[in-house]
Each structure stands twice: as structure tokens, then as C-alpha cells.
Amino acid sequence: MKVPNPFRTYARCHPERSQTVREANGLGESRDPYSRPSTRSLRRYLQAAALTAAVFLFMGAGGNTDARFKDLGHRMMCTCGCGQVLLECNHIGCKSSDKMRDQLMAAIDKGDNDDLILQGFVQEYGPTVIAAPTATGFNRVAWIMPFVVLALGIAFAVHIVRSWKNRPTPALADGITIPRGPELDELRAQARKETEQ
Amino acid sequence: MAQIGSFALLLALGLSAYSFGAGLLSLFGRDAASARLGETARRAGIATFIVVALASFILVSAAFADDFSIAYIYHHSNRELPAAYKFAVLWSGQEGSLLFWSLLLAGYGFVLRLRYKTDQRLFAYASVIIAAVQVFFLLILNFAAHPFAIERGVLPPDGTGLNPLLQYPEMVIHPPMLYLGYVGFTIPFAFALGALIMHYPGEKWIHITRRWTMVTWCFLTVGIFLGAHWAYAVLGWGGYWGWDPVENASLMPWLTGTAFLHSVIMQEKRGMLKVWNMVLIFATFLLSMLGTFLTRSGVISSVHAFAQSSIGTWFIVFIALTTAVCVFFLVKNLSYLKSEHKLESLVSRESSFLFNNLLLLVVCFTVLWGTFFPILSEWVQGHKVTVGPPFFNRVAVPVALLLMLLTAVGPLLAWRKTSLESLKRNFLYPAIGSVAVGLMMILFGVRPWEDPSYFYAVMAAVLSALVIFTVISEFVRGGRVIAGKSGQNIFAAMLLLCRRNTRRYGGYIVHFGVALVIIGLLGQPFNKEVEKEMAFGDKINIGPYTLVCQSYTQDDNPNYANEWAIINVYRGGKLITTMYPERRFYKASGQPQTIPRIYPSFRQDLFLVSDVYLVYEGKNDTTGRPIIKAHLNPLVPWIWIGLIIMVFGTVVALVPNYVPVVVTVSAPVRETAHAGAGD
Fold first, then answer.
1. Is the pLDDT of residue A45 over 50?
2. What is the rounded distance in angstroms from the CA atom of residue B427 to the CA atom of residue B419?
3. In a mutagenesis test of the B interface, which of A84, A118, A125, A169 is the best target, namely the one with the most B β-carbons within 10 Å?
């Protein structure tokens, strides 16, 4: 559905007011709101839009490098034997992490994509440099198994609860019955009333 | 000294073997002769403790006497080592820590054997099982990892000293707490296996075991958190949690132990989950053994591990044998473990316990799987892979959040069935409050849609708030009832409420502590850090703080040389504290160590407390100026406060319930009015 232009609608309905408002604001003679902007104005608009886009694009570029450095730095391990993620290695004077961070920054500045950068580190330091198993080949099993266990566990728990629900009521002596359903709810409400009020 | 220590260990082995053999034989008979034999086995178990304690005393004395003829003392101590760390030499190495384990096991056994009259038959079974475990550890001590082995060659003038990373106050308390937890789970294991074998009637064995289990769980909790604090306060250990294999090894029995503590309530109240509880306590004990195996065998590399050794094979055999025994008796006695009670609704406390156990076990499996996957990968693919924090965080954190939801909801569900009206009554206000907390975080600028870590932070805050509000509402609701009936003020009423059911309300306090710990953890995505070389008067701005370098200097003592900076911390132009980050160089070992300084900003920030954390990174060799790294870690102090609350809650739960005193008073009885009287 086409949304009506409120300016056009107002001007159509109140041409005398639109003129008064414009003159009061020093905007000169009222122009026909339907007239097209001139070519020069259009060019100006396009230049402004291009400039704005460029500002946003290049403003984000530095931030993008930082974000990539942080992301990739948290996907690799320091190889000094500390067992910590690269960007969290806090060994003073650790030679491994300083060198690896410099390599990472250089690779990002070079323009390599994430996969290429990680591959390069694997080739130099071995597969254990990647901080978590990749989602390829047998390594996928590492990620899948916990969720398989969770799903099986939920299914098992639901099965157990159902089997508990379907159990026969245990027999009690002297015709005593355990209250259930609405009777149990009534008794509980009564107990609550008597204890809380 | 070494000869006496060696003899003591041999004697201990003999005594524990007798305690096991004679104790086992005595269980087969019920006559007076068997009873006498059982009594000698019990006394042999008591004597084992005395002899193992003697061996431990000798080892510690050797450390204080600087007896470097003993190889263990030579490798873990030196003349200038402070006294507290000389005492800690007992557990700072492989052999000594095994002796310490044996000492604690013998100590637990000693207490159990003294209290045997509680239930002589059950305690006899438990005593035999404990003796069997004791035999295993004493075999290792005598034949595979002897703490009194003599240092070969010329007697060295001084020892190599304790690893500088271990020279920190927590070295004196963290391992003992951890070991008290690990070793302590042997007791409920022994009771459970004993009850299973003898077909113990009823659930009384759980009542007997309950306190042991809670105390053990508390020790393990304290041990884990002390380790986390140590790792946080000392550089090189990866922050308060790094998912290191040895850290994981302590977490796994804690998870199954926690599941056991909860599901055993089901067995007590409703006679349900009997098989499951047996499996849980067996798993807890086996995971404790597995943790020790991981730390000592070198099969998985870790910064926390002892050096690689051959005793891994001993542990594999022991774990396999114990598993076989447990499975055998479990399968053989399944009929004894049948329960008959019904369940009426999925929305019930029974179900919440079941799902609570499920989630705890899923996290335990995830940790176990992630810890051993590198080995599995090597078998299958021919090369190891790393399973580090990104894996554990991505899998365990969402499950842990679900667990927090159950922590809030579970205790307020009724047994058998919970009505919708009850749910609304119990959860409406806490739910509103917790959602408000989430909205406030978003209003204050946390954008959960921007980053998964922010999303988890908001969820953790909401769920922690839900736990806190439900606990408070339980205390207030119960307190109001008592206050109304007794006329006391609400706080006295809440205290009486707690005393009437210490286990329940102590448990609520523990849950409250857990929520505080989660609040402490959720600040991690908001950490800040700044690094700078600082001359006199130079400043670092971090968050609302300005750090000004007043001075830097160096010092020397027999144990180490050090250099340190004096940093004034300002906020709003006002000096709030002075901090002294330093770096040490230990002379005996030739190793450096950095000592960060931490200032928790309670006075300035109250509930939104942060740690100001300063590190002396090093020195510019050209200018001689220190390089200081400043961190601002929001909410971290709540982790340690949460631990204190958890311990307090456990202590409350251990206190016996308050039972009103019943006093018999003689009162005159009025004479009955006769018919017609009073006309």
C-alpha cells in the first residue's frame, strides 16, 4: 500500500498556510512541493551520500581489524605450554605469544581471510594451535556428542517420568488411600490456609 | 629418619592389608569368633592411621630439618624456604601428596571406626572397603612412589626449592581442602557399596552418610574456589578458570557429588532413584580417582600436573577393578534397589530433581569428553587436537544457565504435583524482579544482541536474580507465618524458620551463594585493560580510576630479589589506595614470578564492585622504567563472597534441627460437677 506523502497532503489541503509558514521561516516563495530537485542538487545529494558511506566504511575498517584480531586471537592457543588462549596468555615476557600476536596482526593487515590465517598457523605450529576442534571430519564428533547426550538424557528422563506416572498405586493396609488429583489440591489449599493465615 | 619413615609405610601397608583381609572374613560369619576377628580388623584400621601419621610427621620434620639426603626434600625444599611452605612440602610433590592422601584416608577411616556403634554391621562393611582403598595407596607409596627414597651421590648443601609459582599463601590451604574433598568421597562410596552388598534395609544408611557427604562436598567446593582464587591472583595460571585438565578433574566429582546430594533427597523422601544414587556415588568416587590419575600420569599435559610418571598404570588398574566390582554388585542387587512410588505430574519436585541431575551430568560429560578428546583424536586421527575454553564455554555455559533456572524453580515445586496457582503464587514477583534486572542492564547499555557473551551475561544476571528473589521470598513467606503466630519480629521468625529445617534453608542459602558466584562470573565480557610504561608521575586512566606512578624500586632477601612500583589510585580526584605490584626472582630455582596487586572497590561501587588489578609486566632496560598493566575486572569479588555464603549455607544445613523442648508439668484436674449441682 502506498503511504501518502504528508507534505503533499498538507500543501494540497492548506496551500495558503504552507506559504505563510515558509515566508515566516525565511524560506522565500513557496515552491510547488511536487517539483523535482535540480540536477546540481541531485549531484550534491549523491556526493554527500557517497561521503557519508565512505566515512562509515573507513570508520569501521579499524574497528573491523581490531574485532578480527580479537576473534582470531581467541581461537588460537599460546604455544609456550601455558595452556591459555593466545590473547589471554599473561606470562610475563612470553616469547611465543608476542611472536604469534605479531604474526596474526601482519596476516590481518596483509588482507588474508580468517581460514587462510588459521591454516597458516596450523602449518607453522601444528593442529594443536587451534583452541577448539574444527567442525570438520572426526572433530565434528567433539561438538556433537554433548548435545547427543543431552537429547538422550532428556528422552530418558521423560521416559522415567512416564514410567513413574504409570506405576500401579502401592497397596496400603486397612483401606487407606493416598489422596490424588483434586482431593490432593483441596487438602494442600487447606493446609496452606491453616498455616499461613 | 628416612629408615623410620620407610618402616612406618611398610607397617601401615601390613596393618591395612590385615584390616581388609580380616574384616572381609569376619563379614561372612555371624558368630562370636567372627565378631572378635572383625574387632581386630577395626583396631588394625585405627592403628593404620597412627602409623601413616607418623610417616607424614617424619617427612615434614625432614623438611624443617633440611634433610636433603631424602630426595623428595631435596627436590621440593631449600634452607631459605619460609616455614609455612616447608610444612606444605608434604603435598607439593608426587610422593608427598600420595602420602598426604593416604593420611587423610586413614584419618577419615579412623573417625569412622571410632563411631562404629552407630551401626556396627554397616560400618564393618564400610571399614573393609576403606581398607581396600588404603591398601592400594600404600602399595603405590611403598613400591612406586616412595617419599623416603635417598638422594644418590654427594649430599647436596641445599635443595632446589619450591617452584616459585607455588610460593603463595594458598599453597598451604588449597591442596589440603581439595584432598579432603577427593578423599572424603571414599566414605559415602564405602557406605553405599556396603549398604548395597548387605541389602541394608530402608534408607537409614543415607542419613548416616549425609553429613559425611555434605562435609566432603564443602571441602571440595572450598578447594576448587581457593584454586580459582590462586589462579586469579597469581599470573601464569590463566585467570580464575582456564578449563585446564587438572581443573576439570576437580570439577567432575564436584558435579556428580552435587547431583548425588540432590537426588539422595528423593530417595529419603520418596524412596525413588535408588539405582541412580548408587551410580552417582560410584561415579563420584571413580572420578576422584580419575582426577588423581590425570594429575599424576602425564597422559594429558597441564600446567597443574605433577611430572609425568609410571604410576598412571596403577591408577588405571585400580579404577578398572573398582568399576568392575561396582557394576557386579549393582547388577547382582538390582532387585533390592526397586522403588514403588508413583509420580503424578511432570511439574513436580521429583521431576525437577531428575532434570537437575540430568543437566549436572551433561555438564560433567562435556567436561570429561573435552578433557579426553585430545587422546581420542590421537588414537583415531593420529594427531592431537586442543579442546580449550572456546569449546567448554560454548557447550557448558548454556547448560549451566538452564541449571540456574532449575535452581530457582525446583525448590518451590511441590512433591508429586504442583498446581498452576501455586506456580503463580511462588514465582510471579521473583520473575518480575528478575526480568526488571535484565531490562536495567539493557538500559545501562548492555546490548545482548551484539555479542553472544553479552547475551549470556544478561541471561546469567536474570537467572541469578531469579534465584536470589525466590530464596528471599521463601524466607519471607515462612518467616511471616511464624511471626504472625508467635508474635516475634520477622527476622527472629526467619531465624526460627531456618532452625526448624536447617537442611532445607541451609540449602537455600547455598543456592543464594551460587547465584552470587554466577554474578561474579558474568562481569568477564566487560573487563578492561591498559598497558603503559610509567615514569614518575605518569598516569593511566582506566574506567573511573586514575593510576599515578609515585615511585619504583628494588629489594633483596635470602629467598628472592624483587622490583616493585608504588602506584596511587585516584577516583574523582580523591586518593583511595596505594598499590605495590612487584616482580620477584627466586634465587634457589632461578625462576621469576610476577605478583599482581588487587583492590576490590567495595567502598566506591558497593554492589557493582570491581577489582582494580595491577601487574608489574617488566622494566624497560633502556630507561629503567616499569611497564604496568592495569585491569578493571567488574563483579569478580562476588565470586569469593558467593563461596563464603555457600560454606555458611552448608554449615547451617549440617546443624541439627531445632526441636522444641517438651516439659512435663503436673497440673490439678478439676473435680467433675455432679448432675444437679448448681441448681
1. yes
2. 12
3. A84
pLDDT, tens digit (0-9, with 9 covering 90-100), for B448-472: 898 888 999 999 999 999 999 999 9
Range of the domain at A61: 56-134
Is B391's Cβ below 8 Å from some Cβ in A? yes
| pLDDT mean over B594-606 | 84
Chain A environment of B235 (Cβ under 8 Å): 90-92
Cβ of residue A75 closer than 8 Å to a chain B Cβ: yes
Q: Is A177 on the interface with B (CB under 8 A)?
A: no
In chain A, the number of structural domains is 1
User: For residue B48, what pLDDT is reported?
Assistant: 96
Nearest residue, CB atoms, B383 vs list A74, A127, A157: A127
**pTM tops 0.80, yes or no:** yes
Contact across the interface for B389 and A81, Cβ inside 8 Å = no
CA distance A90 to chain B (A): 6
Torsion of CA A86, A92, A95, A96, to 10 degrees: -20
Higher pLDDT, B159 or B304: B159
Could you say which of A145, A160, A169 has the minimum Cβ distance to residue B369? Answer: A145
φ and ψ at B553, to 5 degrees? Answer: -155, -175
* CATH number, residue A122: 1.10.8
Residue B554 C-alpha cell reads as 628494588
Q: Does any domain span residue A115?
A: yes
Does A172 contact B at CB distance below 8 Å?
Answer: no
The model's pLDDT over A67-108, given as tens digits with 9 standing for 90+, comes to 899 889 999 999 887 778 888 887 666 778 888 999 999 999
Burial classification of residue A58, based on how many CB atoms lie within 10 Å of its CB (0-12 exposed, 13-18 middle, 19 or more buried): exposed
Structural domain contains residue A19: no
Residue A49 belongs to some domain of the structure: no
Question: A111 in a domain, yes or no?
Answer: yes
CA dist B404 and B258 (Å) reads: 14
